[in-house]
Structures are given as structure tokens and as C-alpha cells.
């Protein structure tokens, strides 16, 4: 029964959607303090390579490898975030895009460690590791009516789903707090925020680092879902793709990032039957949206209307 | 003495916005800073809050030299300001704007915010309550959920004052709070500033509305082309020849014209 509905192909798409949601949020978070970072692909690569190399060479548990990947990316975020404070807007975007390219070039050229442009294979796959672990206790997927590979992909999706929910929970709670108010006040008027007693250096580096950490986490998860990675997975195409998720869905609200990543991951898959033309349609969808709704699908006004809130009671101008 | 401005000068690439200005403000005073356009009044505020550092001179607050202190530290010390060209957080509700003002008097970090610890919830409650009291004080409580950008001009000015008060300042700097207000709004602004004074807060106010300034201020400094022209009580200022010549006379001529 269960076995009939669970299609590994759909589950794999679902796992890409979930990873892309994490990546979209990794752009959204620094943006909530006004920092447009295109470094996510680079941080993603750092997380992926860190965790892959650690688990391949040192046989450490995946969970520790993944955490290490996210933390190394986060630390790199602090190191890059501090000098980047001088930059804003497009200048920051270009600098972080450059950073991503530098990281990619390091992956390509540090062949003794990274195997160059061929990339790393044989990375422990998350679902299989868990299956093997469970088998150690005498578990068999057949016991719940699943084939092995169905179980493997189902476990991956469940873990990713849990992480995505935890991330959204974290970000939303942070947003509705003193920390979140500080971030949005910096985004709206940095100088005024500072004269209200907010240490803008701290909060900007904080949100930049959180974004880097999240991208690193997504990268590490990606490595252990795919089982193989190469530098081209983290090229500037990826950086732009991640940015588009967030901008398309609406960069003012977290729902925008979630929606953008989901929708834009699905579109090429759903349109697979028209093969090469699908990217033309993808492009046209983007152009139309940016023309009619430059702020993205969701914005604060739309959300408030959805919530049925009266945003302005008799405010006149 | 709350604030002491000592031989302060500020040079902007050749333009002397302020030249060797000295004055000091006593505790509990409402102190006026007036002068023609471009006299350097806003620049003085920007130096006090260290948006810029002075070219020379010192700024002493409660006996401490704050000249080179970071802006946000100065707010922590107890100086908060409003802006001549209103700088609220436009897409934030009035209530949240005021709560941001309370930032430096609260301390919840990422961890306690995400896990909503007991102390964090208590702090948020207190912040909200205080913000509502301040909105009430400036007469904006009914607009607490309205975005700042959707408030009328005079309301925005009062919201900025509430936001500044949320930081518990001992010295409040107001940059032309009556600008763009009608007579009725100006009257209620007068009451509000008096109320602020009665709360034990010292006020330094820049204002072009002379009747308001003369009625409100205990003492006044007049700036002209970056230099201090005169200092004294409203009566002394109104009868000062140099001031009439440089500023007050002109204002009247303009009004007649
Ligand atoms: N950031 C700046 N860079 C360069 N020059 C500046 C800067 N800020 C102010 N100035 C100059 O300093 C002088 C004083 O300006 P300031 O804004 O302090 O005047 P003000 O007394 O507040 O005038 P107003 O009554 O019009 O507000 C002006 O000549 C102005 O052009
Ligand atoms: Mg001014």
C-alpha cells in the first residue's frame, strides 16, 4: 500500500526542494538586515566539501560531518562578513559572488585534496547510512512494506523536512524578537538604527554568518544526498539560481523564499516533457514576474491582507 | 552640568560648518539652539551623537568625554535624538518603532529570543508595555499597529519623539520638531516637551518657530555661519542687537513679505 505511492523519483525532487529552501533562506536572512549576499553557492561548497572529506577520510559519523560543514562555512562567514561591512547593495553582491568563484577555483585546483574538477565520489549517502545503522538492530524496510531504496529516499526527505521546519521556526522566532527588530531596523535605515543604540556591526555580521551557516548546512546535506560533488555544483550559476528563488518568491518575507525555492525547483521538472524548451519558459516566467511584481510573489502587504489584518487604521497622508 | 560643548569646530572639505563653539546645558533645562539656515545646528547634533567626529574640540556628557564614542554607545549613555528629515522605520508598526528605541535598555540575544526564555518573555512584555505608554503620551496609541510610513506628518514627528524616549535618555535632542506642524499641533508639542522636562529629561531643541522657542526654552544659543553669536535667556536673545540683525529681524521681514 505505502510502497505503491512512494516513488523514489518524486522523493528525490522533494529532497532537492527542501535543500533549495534552506539555500533560499540563507539569502533571505542576511537580506533581512539589508545585506545582499551572493556567497551562498560558495558557502554551500565549503559545507559540502568539508563534510564529504571528513566523512570519507576519517570515518566520522555523518551528523558530525554535516555540523562541521555548516560550522566551517559559518566561521568563513564571520571572516568574510567583517570586512564586507564596508560594502552594501550591489557592491556587496559582486564581492560575495567573487568570493564564491574564488572558493570554486580552490576546489578545482587543490587536486590532492579535492580531486579537482572531477570532484569527490563515494561520499556516504545519508539514507543508506541510516538503513545500514537500522539493519544493525535487525530492522528491515520490508517490515514496514518498503523496498530498500524507497526507505532510503523517504528517510532523507523526512530528515530534510525536519531541518527545514526547524530552520523556519528559528528564523521566524528570531524575527519576532528584539534581534529581529534590530535586523529590520538596520535594513530600513542603518543610521537611524545606530542612533537608537543598536550595534549595527554585531547584527550585520550575525545575520551574514547565519546565512553562511545555513548555506553550509545545505551544502553538507546536498553532498550526503547526492553521494558525489564537483566544483561545478557550486558555480556562480548556482549562486544566481539561489538568489532568484528568494527574489521570485518575495525577499521581504520568509514565505517568499520557501515558495520561490519550491516553485522554481518544480517548474523544470514538471516541464520535463518539453525538454530544452523548459528553460525558455523558466526565463519567461521570471521576466513576467519581475515586470509586474518586482517585489516578488509575496510581500508584507500581501501577507497582512492574507491574515486579514487592518494594516492602517485611518492613517492619512 | 549635563552637556558641555567645548571649543567645537567642524570642517567639511573647506566649509567651516562650526567654528569654535562653546556652551553648556544644565540638568533639567530646555535649551534652544537657533540660527539661520545653514548655521550649523544640525551639524552640532551630528557631532554630539557622533555621526561625524568634530575637527577639533570636545563634547563632555555628565563629566565624561564622549567625543569619539560610537553612536550606539552614546545612546546607551543616555543621549537620544530625532531627525530634521524624519527617519522612522517606514515599514514597521508604530509600536515596533518605539520598541526598537528600547533596544539599548533590554538585552535578549539570539538564544533567549528563539527559545523564548522566561526572562525574554518578561522583557518583551515590559518593552511592549513601555512602548504603549509612550505612544499614549504622544497621543498615538490608537495607531500602534499602523506602519510608520502611513502616519500623517505631525504624527510621524511625535512618533520619533516617542521612539527616542524609549531609550530612557537623560538628554533628548530634538531637531525642528515643530516643522510642518499647524498651530494646534505645535501647542500640543509644547505640552509634550514640557511633560518630557517634568520627567526629569534635559532637552536640547533646534527650532525655527520663534514663539515656541521663546515660550519653551530656559536658555538659548544662537549660531550664525557656524559661530556662536549670542547666548542667554529668551528675553536677552530677543533684545540682542546682533541677533536681531542676523536672524530675528530677517524672520520678521520674511513674515511681512
Ligand atoms: N555631511 C555634510 N557634508 C558637507 N557639508 C555639510 C554636511 N552637513 C552639513 N554640511 C554643511 O554645513 C553647513 C551647516 O549645515 P547644517 O545642516 O548644520 O545647518 P542647519 O543650521 O541645521 O540648517 P537648517 O536650519 O537649514 O537645518 C551647511 O553649509 C551645510 O551645507
Ligand atoms: Mg538643520
Structural description of this entry:
The complex is a heterodimer of chains A (317) and B (257). Chain A has 317 residues and is mainly alpha-helical. Chain A has one domain (2-234). Chain A is 73% helix and 0% strand. Chain A has helices spanning 2-5, 8-31, 40-58, 62-84, 89-109, 111-114, 126-135, 148-175, 178-188, 190-195, 200-226, 236-249, 254-270, 278-292, 300-306. Chain A is globular and about 60 Å long. Mean pLDDT of chain A is 88; it is low at 310-317. Chain B has 257 residues and is of the alpha/beta class. Chain B folds into two domains: 1-78 and 169-257, Rossmann fold, CATH 3.40.50.300; 91-166, no CATH class. Helices cover 41% and strands 23% of the residues of chain B. Chain B has helices spanning 41-48, 71-77, 94-101, 110-114, 118-137, 153-165, 183-198, 210-216, 234-238, 241-256, and strands at 3-12, 15-25, 30-34, 56-61, 64-65, 79-81, 171-175, 202-206, 219-224, 227-232. In chain B, a hairpin with a 2-residue loop joins strand 1 and strand 2 (15-25). In chain B, helix 3 (94-101) packs across helix 5, helix 3 runs parallel beside helix 6 (153-165) and helix 5 packs across helix 6. Chain B is globular, with a radius of gyration of 19 Å. The relative contact order of chain B is 0.17. The model of chain B has no long low-confidence stretch (mean pLDDT 93). Classes of the chains: A mainly alpha (317), B alpha/beta (257). The interface between A and B is large, with 34 and 48 residues. The complex binds adenosine-5'-triphosphate (ATP) and magnesium ion (MG). Residues 12, 15, 17, 35, 37-43, 84 of chain B line the site of adenosine-5'-triphosphate. Magnesium ion binds next to helix 1 of chain B. Chain B: GO terms for molecular function: ATP binding; ATP hydrolysis activity; L-isoleucine transmembrane transporter activity; L-phenylalanine transmembrane transporter activity; L-valine transmembrane transporter activity. Chain B: Keywords: ATP-binding, Nucleotide-binding, Transport. Chain B: One of its GO terms (biological process) is D-alanine transmembrane transport.
Amino acid at each position: 500500500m505505502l510502497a505503491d505511492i512512494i516513488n523514489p523519483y518524486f522523493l528525490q525532487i522533494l529532497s532537492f526542494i527542501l535543500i533549495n529552501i534552506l539555500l533560499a533562506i540563507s539569502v533571505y536572512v542576511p537580506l533581512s538586515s539589508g545585506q545582499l549576499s551572493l556567497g551562498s553557492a560558495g558557502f554551500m561548497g565549503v559545507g559540502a566539501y568539508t563534510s564529504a572529506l571528513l566523512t570519507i577520510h576519517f570515518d566520522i559519523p555523518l551528523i558530525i560531518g554535516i555540523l562541521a560543514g555548516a560550522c566551517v562555512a559559518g566561521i568563513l562567514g564571520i571572516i568574510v562578513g567583517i570586512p564586507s561591512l564596508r560594502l552594501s547593495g550591489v557592491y556587496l553582491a559582486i564581492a560575495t559572488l567573487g568570493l564564491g568563484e574564488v572558493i570554486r577555483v580552490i576546489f578545482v585546483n587543490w587536486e590532492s585534496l579535492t580531486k579537482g574538477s572531477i570532484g569527490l565520489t563515494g561520499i556516504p549517502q545519508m539514507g543508506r547510512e541510516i538503513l545500514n545503522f537500522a539493519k544493525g538492530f535487525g530492522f528491515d524496510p520490508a517490515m514496514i512494506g518498503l523496498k530498500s531504496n524507497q526507505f532510503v529516499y523517504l528517510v532523507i526527505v523526512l530528515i530534510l523536512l525536519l531541518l527545514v521546519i526547524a530552520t523556519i521556526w528559528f528564523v521566524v522566532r528570531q524575527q519576532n524578537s528584539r534581534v529581529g527588530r534590530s535586523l529590520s531596523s538596520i535594513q530600513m535605515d542603518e543610521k537611524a538604527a545606530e542612533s537608537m543604540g543598536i550595534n549595527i556591526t554585531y547584527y550585520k555580521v550575525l545575520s551574514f554568518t547565519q546565512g553562511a551557516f545555513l548555506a553550509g548546512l545545505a551544502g553538507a546535506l546536498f553532498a550526503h544526498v547526492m553521494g558525489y560533488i564537483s566544483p561545478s555544483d557550486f558555480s556562480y550559476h548556482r549562486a544566481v539560481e539561489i538568489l532568484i528563488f528568494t527574489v521570485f518568491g518575495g525577499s521581504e518575507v520568509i514565505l517568499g523564499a520557501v515558495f520561490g525555492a519550491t516553485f522554481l525547483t518544480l517548474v523544470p521538472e514538471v516541464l520535463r516533457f518539453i525538454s530544452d524548451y523548459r528553460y525558455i519558459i523558466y526565463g519567461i516566467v521570471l521576466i513576467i514576474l519581475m515586470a509586474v511584481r518586482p517585489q516578488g510573489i509575496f510581500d508584507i502587504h500581501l501577507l497582512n491582507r492574507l491574515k486579514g489584518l487592518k494594516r492602517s487604521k485611518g492613517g492619512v497622508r | 552640568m549635563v552637556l558641555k560643548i567645548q571649543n567645537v569646530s567642524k570642517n567639511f572639505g573647506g566649509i567651516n560648518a562650526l567654528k569654535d563653539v562653546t556652551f553648556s546645558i544644565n540638568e533639567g533645562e530646555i535649551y534652544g539652539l537657533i540660527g539661520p539656515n545653514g548655521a550649523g545646528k544640525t551639524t552640532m547634533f551630528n557631532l554630539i551623537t557622533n555621526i561625524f567626529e568634530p575637527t577639533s574640540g570636545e563634547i563632555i556628557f555628565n563629566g565624561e568625554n564622549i567625543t569619539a564614542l560610537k553612536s550606539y554607545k552614546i545612546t546607551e549613555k543616555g543621549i537620544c535624538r530625532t531627525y530634521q528629515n524624519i527617519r522612522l522605520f517606514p515599514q514597521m508598526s508604530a509600536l515596533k518603532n518605539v520598541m526598537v528605541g528600547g533596544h539599548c535598555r533590554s538585552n535578549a540575544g539570539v538564544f533567549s529570543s528563539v527559545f523564548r526564555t522566561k526572562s525574554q518573555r518578561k522583557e518583551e512584555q515590559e518593552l511592549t508595555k513601555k512602548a504603549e505608554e509612550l505612544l499614549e503620551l504622544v497621543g498615538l496609541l490608537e495607531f500602534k499597529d499602523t506602519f510608520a510610513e502611513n502616519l500623517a506628518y505631525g504624527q510621524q514627528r511625535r512618533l520619533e519623539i516617542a521612539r527616542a524616549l524609549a531609550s530612557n535618555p537623560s538628554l533628548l535632542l530634538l531637531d525642528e520638531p515643530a516643522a510642518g506642524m499647524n498651530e494646534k499641533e505645535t501647542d500640543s508639542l509644547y505640552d509634550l516637551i514640557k511633560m518630557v522636562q517634568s520627567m526629569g529629561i534635559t532637552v536640547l531643541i533646534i527650532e525655527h518657530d520663534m514663539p515656541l522657542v521663546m515660550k519653551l526654552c530656559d536658555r538659548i544659543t544662537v549660531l550664525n555661519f557656524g559661530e556662536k553669536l549670542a547666548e542667554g535667556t529668551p528675553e536677552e536673545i530677543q533684545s540682542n542687537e546682533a541677533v536681531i540683525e542676523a536672524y530675528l529681524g530677517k524672520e520678521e521681514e520674511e513674515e511681512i513679505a
